[in-house]
Amino acid sequence: MGEVIDTAALVRSGSSSAADVMDACLKRINSRDKAVNALVSYDEDRARADAARIDKKRADGQTLGKLAGVPVVVKDNICTEFSRTTCGSKILESYVSQFNAFVVDQLIDADAVIVGKANLDEFAMGSSTEFSLHGGTLNPWDTQRVPGGSSGGPAVAVASRMVSASLGSDTGGSIRQPASFCGVVGLKPSYGRVSRYGLVAYGSSLDQIGPFATSVDDAALMLEVIAGHDDRDSTSVNEDVPVYTDALHQPIDGKRVGVCDACFAEGLSDDVRLSVESSIEKMRDAGCEIVPIALPHMKYAIASYYMIAMAEASSNLARFDGVHYGYRAAEPRDLADMYATSRGEGFGAEVKRRIMMGTYALSSGYYDAYYLKALKVRRLIKVDFDAAYQRCDVIALPVAPTTAFAVGEKVEDPLAMYLSDMYTVFANLAGLCAISLPCGFDGSGLPIGWQLMGQPLGESTLLSMAHHYQSMTDYHLQAPELATK
Amino acid sequence: MSAKQILKTRIIVGMEIHVQLRTQTKMFCGCGLSFDAPPNSHVCPVCLGHPGTLPVINKQALRFAILAGLAMNCRIASYTKWDRKNYFYPDLPKNYQVSQYDLPICGEGHFDLPSETDPQTIRIRRAHLEEDAGKNIHDTGAHTLVDLNRAGTPLLEIVTEPDIHSAADAYAFCAELHRLVTYIGISDANMQMGQMRFEPNVNVEITHREGLSKTPIAEIKNLNSFRSVKNAIDYEAQRQIAAWEANPGYELGQAANENRGWNDDRGVTEFQRTKEAAHDYRYLPDPDLVPVTISETMMKEIRTDLPELPIARRKRFVSDLQLSSKDAETIVDHRATADLFEDAIEAGGPTDMLSKQMINIWLSLANDRQTDIANLGVSAAGIAELAGITDRGDINKSAAKQIAEAMLSDKQSPRELAKHLGLVQVKDTAATQAWVQQAIDNNAPAVQDVLSNPKKAKAAVGFLRGQVMRISGGQADPKLVGELIEKLLTPKPD
Predict the structure, then answer these.
(1) Partner of A279 at 20 to 30 A CA spacing, among A31, A152, B149, B297?
(2) What are chain A's domains?
(3) Which pTM does this prediction carry?
(4) What number of other Cβ atoms are within 10 A of residue A56's Cβ?
């Protein structure tokens, strides 16, 4: 089973109280977070009050929800009306949303307690959680290393066992890559499976909210709670949510695992390659068929992804202008100066870089060569995957080319940073579901993750494959030393 | 300068028209539409553009746009999408406007402008949906205030080809289009409230000794009356011709196109900015909105909502109902009036009398009360009966107007009201003769004029007739009265 499932069962049955669960959680946070800076805000009084309300609900004879009393944290680009939503940016430093994101309401309805908000790269732009108003988050396995990003905070909160589950967002790998760097399970649902209402947009056609957990079982339960149709998100899929926690147990023998040789070529570290290859062998042992697939346009994915994400970001982030809410420059000379200075002072360097590149790509005279070309490549990549899924049920590949890199290592080299997303952007470009699973450790004892990518809305199959893999291994059970403090 | 001698000029005008749609809610959120509500009272996180919010398309706006497209003979897109038009302005909370760029919901169409002497076809280039911006309020001292009540209001932007060649035709086109959008019910098109705004693009083709020249195009922004459309185009064309005569470089392609505003007080257009300084709007498909596929079924369904259009209806009223074209135009102008008129014919009213009373009685009553006929609270049956009894001579014309007024507050039938008010016309010769005699007896000077003053005789007969109608309480038949006055005052041969 999983920690989330177990905790909820204990609280539901009355064997544990939500108050006690919360108490223990807050103790863990207070003793561990200083070392890693995973959380940007949490409110002990509110968390305890919420836990007490859940206990009272049970005492009043009401049946508790699927996440009864389970403490969770959510990435700080997911809107909450009870605390600030900063997106790790000075421009939203004191911003409190007027509403809860769809996923936040779903968690609350399931009787989870949202303890706090977790750190991220500013506006989810980054792969290391180093670019945040709140300072960088550190990897609990080695605090000289980054946790990955942009959902570094939610990943670390789970990896250091402060909470058993959290929510992040994934635009090009922002859930899976930190999950891999931190040795936890990270799930990016298919585009449209989870409502984006209340997720502060980065690249709207790529963004998706998903869970971190210490097991596939818990990730499945979290998805079950947050998935579903939402009238307020036109891109949300209007299809029933399967009972993923049941789907986990579907048999997998005879399932076909697609492997693309090009994903194991240059740029991939040996430790990662060996671990992923041995994981694929385990799937063969479990009765799966391993089939070769081709992804002819793979090499264009990173360029296409960054072009689209930046173009959309340049438009999505236009609203942060100091006029209506958020940071406003102190003494602007005129309107143009108010815009320029508020944005100039409010955004960090990486966000400005992406806004400028996106603006450039959309400008008249460049649109066809950059943005439109990127859309065409995206279309071709989709076609590649449609063809690949004629031959297989899921595709296996690495999550990231390396394990966690050192803090500061790639700060001055944006291109190197961008390339750490080379295996994850496919799923976002093609709207696929994908999961990152712990599959070993490198020579320095840093966790390695591997990735399974399923078809759009293929979460049931994906999760059942992941679950079988997990049942054959114990990597997901390993925790960093910090988790014992 | 002889080289500049102008032989002929031709105005070239294409129109852009913004029509505010009559939906219950805004384009992308659940807020209601408002005109003069307190500032920022019709707003929510979505139309305020707060982070994390997403738009949801208003299906009614989509239907209205399709209906308008059908009415303008446009090709309706089977697949349409939404684009973001990016620019920074405080009244635009997201700093982009959701609009339609390359796949508008309505493509090429045409609008036939009828005229007995000079019928024209104005081609429609496209019509697309977009959201309106809010308002910046500058007249409050040191600060500019922003009111976002209007932000997100659904607009249909209609763009014509440059097929209009006179200010008068532009006026006629705008008026006809106004009638059309109100007719099909997609807009109240109240121009004082800015619900319909016109932007003519004007230039002039000049034939001169040396050949043919064209002036740069000026777009005149935000006109909100037909009259200002006409006056602005007239002024602008003359201004451009004068500028061309004075300035050798003032040619299309050489001098910049520009935006101009219309100063109604001074009767001039004023320079705003050149189009060369225009924004690069960096359009991109809006990833928050899914493209819409319009099915044949949906089109069929919407087509059934399309009423007979004003121009066709006018033609039919002239050809089938033998109305004069002027009367047809007056009655068809408002759909409710024309509907009531046709219902009254259906209810058995005589067409000719009905059309007269529609205009002289009912429209004038509605105008006096600043409403339209549909709001007067009278039924088609009542209107038909009133015309019927007038036509048969049961009541006279002035009695009909009195009865009509009574019908506004009294639910009795016109016939009952006529009786009740004593307005049933008396056709009895003896009774009428007694009233005439009384008038003659009481008005000796007038009688004297009739008998012996040819200059005043006609006026005096009229005076006497009026006296008879007064004495009879309006019941006398004016025709019979006239005959009797003539008979009684004709000198008998001795």
Answers:
(1) A152
(2) 3-250+399-408+430-484 (3.90.1300.10)
(3) 0.90
(4) 12
